[in-house]
Every structure is written in structure tokens, then in C-alpha cells.
Amino acid sequence: MDMGIAGRTALVCAASKGLGRGCAEALAAEGVNLVIVARTKETLDATAAEIRAKYGVDVKALACDITTPEGHAAALAACPAPDILVNNAGGPPPGDFRDFTRDDWIKALDANMLTPIELIKLTIDGMIDRGFGRIVNITSSSVKAPIDVLGLSNGARSGLTGFVAGVARRIAATGVTINNLLPGTFDTDRIADTLAAQAKAQNISLEEARARRAKALPAGRFGTPDEFGRACAFLCSVHAGYITGQNWLIDGGAYPGTY
Ligand code: NAD
């Protein structure tokens, strides 16, 4: 299916690896030119070069911390008029809620709530003026079903979800959509780190920890960044103009509810 977005420009945050990279690649596969953001220049430059070579689109790499005001300004300077904005950043650390300090909360809110809101604020009026825009926020299945050790994620991402629910409807007649993609368990570095910690705590091998985790999922396996990216590309396509304000779970059936 032709997604109808070839030649568009996307700003994809936190895109050197994992789900952000999956989104960047799937958009590039549709002919979308990219500005990709991540903190580590070498990894980011390598990703940019690979995407450029594979898909033949323009890829600009911006190394910065997207969760800071300097990062927001740099992203806008590098990509002043995106047609597509994919909001993403690293997730907050796990822990007991009693141990979370005010500073921990501010960091989580900056990364997973206030940065996407700021980037939406900085780009949405241009999209409205041009009559087309797609905003996709990478959040988490924890928004639908809280994960007890991820209190910072449950809280900060729910704040973003509430904000998006209001704005998406307010601008629904402008040609600009805003949706959230809620990943379950995907095979990325973040999950590899969690599995390594689990393996150590349970005194089992990494392979065993991985096999147990996969077996507990209805799909019997982790999702791939490519699958995640393809869903993002569809939401950014011309065919998804009537889908807005939605929270789309991509979790291999892990969420147990009927609705
Ligand atoms: P990942 O560790 O594989 O990749 C993270 C990417 O974000 C990297 O490119 C990294 O450089 C970049 N990044 C992190 N912090 C940044 C910052 N402050 N500024 C700029 N770039 C930054 O992670 P992932 O698994 O792809 O996860 C992406 C998001 O999705 C995270 O918020 C994570 O919590 C969330 N999530 C992931 C899963 C999963 O199964 N992988 C599940 C639920 C939620």
C-alpha cells in the first residue's frame, strides 16, 4: 500500500536505536526525509548513514538531549517545518514509589510528558497552516495497565495521554492528527537491560530470562522495532487522517481487557 507520504519531512526523536529507529526506518521506507535525534553522536551518525544508504532519503542527524530546552530549540532549528513528529525519549528507571524523589519526578515529567508537549506546541501551528500533520507519541502499555515498578512511567505518560486527548480533538478538523503508540514488550536495548537485571536477581542465564518473559506473552515472543515502525508509518500515512486522539496498544495481546 502506498502510504502517500513520500517527500514529507519527519522529526523523529530518540531514534538512533530501538523503537525510535524502527519508526525512522519505516518512514524512510515510505520516502520520508528525516531529522533524527539522539544523545550519542557516533551511534546516531552511524544510524543516519545506514538509513540514507538503504532508503535513499535525506537524513539529518542531531546529537542532543531532547528532554532539555536546548534540545527543543536545536530540534526546531534542525527541522523548522516537520510534516510528521514522532515524540520519544528514554523511559524512567524502575523502583519503589517511596524512593522516588522530587528530582526523579521532574526528570520523568521532562522526558515523558513535558518534552512531547513542548515539541507539539512548537510544530503544530505550522502543520495546521499547511493543512497536513501527523504527530505520534511513543508512550507505553503502562498507560492502560500500570506496571508497579514503573510508577514514574505510569504517572508521567498518563499526563501526556490526558493532554493529547484534549488537543487532538480540538484540532481534528485541521488535517493534523495526534495519536499515541503504546508498546508492550519489544526487543530493544531497554528490554535487554531489564532482562539482564532479572537474570542476575533470579540467578538464571540471560537466555532463560528471555525465554520465560517471551513465554508469558500471548504472542509467545517479543515485538520487533520494524513491526512497531510500520504501525507508526501507517498512522502517519494519508490513509489515517480519520484516526486521532487514539491510544494504540501494540503488545502481542498482552493487555488482558476486552476494551
Ligand atoms: P532504547 O534504549 O532501545 O532506545 C532509546 C533511544 O532513545 C536511543 O536511540 C537513545 O539514544 C535515545 N534517547 C534516550 N534518551 C534520550 C534523550 N534524553 N534525548 C535524545 N535521545 C534519547 O529504548 P526503546 O526500547 O526503543 O524505548 C523507547 C521508549 O519506549 C522508551 O521511553 C521506553 O521506556 C518505551 N517503552 C519501551 C518498551 C519496550 O519493550 N522496548 C515498552 C514500553 C515502553
Structure keywords:
259 residues, 14% strand, Rossmann fold, binds nicotinamide-adenine-dinucleotide, alpha/beta, 3-oxoacyl-[acyl-carrier protein] reductase, globular, seven-stranded parallel beta sheet
Give a brief outline of the structure:
This protein has 259 residues and is α/β, with parallel strands linked by helices. The protein has helices at residues 18-29, 41-55, 69-78, 102-130, 151-170, 189-202, 206-215, 225-235; strands at residues 9-12, 33-38, 59-63, 84-87, 133-138, 176-183, 247-250.
Structural class: alpha/beta
Distance between the termini: 28 Å
Unreliable stretches: none
The count of strands amounts to 7
Oligomerization state of this entry?
Answer: single chain
What number of domains? 2
Describe the structure.
The chain is α/β, with parallel strands linked by helices. It folds into 2 domains: 9-185 and 225-250, 3-Layer(aba) Sandwich (Rossmann fold); 187-222, no CATH class. The protein is 47% helix and 14% strand. It contains 8 helices and 7 strands. The chain has helices at 18-29, 41-55, 69-78, 102-130, 151-170, 189-202, 206-215, 225-235, and strands spanning 9-12, 33-38, 59-63, 84-87, 133-138, 176-183, 247-250. The chain has a 7-stranded parallel β-sheet, sandwiched between helices. Helix 5 links the parallel strand 5 (133-138) and strand 6 (176-183). Helix 4 packs parallel to helix 5. 42% of the residues are buried. The model has no long low-confidence stretch (mean pLDDT 97). Nicotinamide-adenine-dinucleotide (NAD) binds at residues 14-20, 37-40, 65-67, 88-91, 138, 140, 183, 185-186, 188-191. Nicotinamide-adenine-dinucleotide binds next to helix 1, strand 2 and helix 6.
